[in-house]
Amino acid sequence: MFKDNIWTDFIYINSGIIRSYIINEEGKDFTRQLHFNTNESAIGNLFAVDLTSLLMQTPSCRGFEVLEDSEVLIFSKHNLDKLFSCSEKWQKIGHIVTGLSYVSMDTYYNNLLTKSTKSRYLQLILSMSKLIEKVPQYHIASYLGVTPVTLSRIKKEIKNEIK
To answer: pLDDT tens digit string along 104-133?
Structure first.
């Protein structure tokens, strides 16, 4: 799915890593979310979708990039809406997935605004240790809201503290 398209599908990641990003007015991209399915995954990571675009049927402001070979399942909004209308259990699943996705992004933005970069990086190590080894460091830096140089400095600082 490309930026400016209106989302019509949910993408479930069976395996692999997909990055979503936004682009500012100067053309610089910023990693918004890392979507993946590993033992470390939370429900918010399992789906690659622009929920705002999907639910509001407005053009997406996000781009998506596959960072490693991935296996995905695509569920159309139309078919999911049919399931939701036929069964309260499916409605509940949809509600839970949407809610947990929101909580994941809300937590990310709260941390971005209230915690130091070092704290955010340490939390990322704890919550996604295997993932950050596979993702280019400039994407990790962008996700944390810093430059790659700042991320290198923080990593060096942490390494020196461990010694």
So the answer is: 778 888 888 899 999 999 988 887 777 888
Residue 62 · residue 3 · CB < 8 Å: yes
β-bridge partners, 36: 17
* Domain 9-162 superfamily per CATH: Jelly Rolls (2.60.120.10)
For residue 129, give the amino acid letter: S
Q: Dump pLDDT digits (tens) for 7-62.
A: 888 888 888 889 999 998 998 899 988 888 876 666 557 788 888 888 888 999 89
Task: Report how far apart, in Å, the C-alpha atoms of 30 and of each of 27, 38, 89, 143, 160 are.
Answer: 10, 23, 36, 7, 28
Which residue is associated with the tokens 């909580």? 103
The pair of three-digit structure tokens given for residue 32, joined into one six-digit string: 């918004």
Domain-wise residue ranges, the chain: 9-162
By the 10 Å C-beta count (0-12 exposed, 13-18 middle, 19+ buried), 70 is classed as middle
